Automatic annotation (TrEMBL):
One of its GO terms (cellular component) is extracellular space. It holds the Pfam family Jacalin. Keywords: Lectin, Signal. GO terms for molecular function: carbohydrate binding. It comes from the Eukaryota. The keyword Signal applies. This is Jacalin-type lectin domain-containing protein. It comes from Castor canadensis. Residues 15-151 form the Jacalin-type lectin domain. SMART domains: Jacalin. PANTHER family: OS11G0524900 PROTEIN, ZYMOGEN GRANULE PROTEIN 16 HOMOLOG B. SUPFAM superfamilies: Mannose-binding lectins.
């Protein structure tokens, strides 16, 4: 089980670095855009077997480039005015299989098979067929304090 919240979860194992979790391997990515404003949307690309194949974030009115493996069906979760992502849960084996995003308003969005700081951006690694690791940067852009917490 993968989790990302405001606090470290020591029972989760095998972080590749302090910023990502999952089995890893493949090409590293970091979604830039936090300087353009807060996250307004999440677009996840899900393959036919339910694998998480790619990801994009929307900062303001602009979508980031897509990161991950080619293919997959795009699924979007748009945040409402003033809403923030406050937790992310998921699961991974060789690839990331499931991500569930929870907001400050209690809304949830789940992608794939089967209270704290706000999400600033996402980073990770991808292989030919899927995302192989994913990490989350948490903090408060208004105060400039950012924490890198593994999940």
């Amino acid at each position: 089980t993968l989790q990302a919240k405001c606090c470290p979860l020591p029972h989760l194992s095998v972080p590749l670095s302090p910023e990502v979790n999952g089995p890893g391997g493949g090409s590293y990515f970091y979604i830039k855009g936090e300087e353009q404003g807060e996250i307004q949307g999440i677009r996840v690309f899900v393959g036919v077997l339910g694998l998480i194949k790619g990801i994009q974030l929307r900062f303001g009115s602009h979508w980031s480039p897509r990161y991950g493996a080619p293919g997959g069906r795009a699924e979007e979760f748009l945040l409402q005015e003033g809403e923030r992502v406050t937790a992310v849960h998921g699961s991974a084996r060789a690839c990331v299989w499931h991500l569930r995003w929870i907001t400050s308003r209690g809304r949830e969005a789940a992608f794939g098979h089967p209270a704290g700081l706000q999400l600033l951006t996402v980073n990770g690694q991808h292989q030919l067929f899927c995302l192989s690791a994913i990490g989350f940067k948490w903090g408060s852009p208004k105060k400039g304090r950012v924490s890198h917490l593994p999940f």
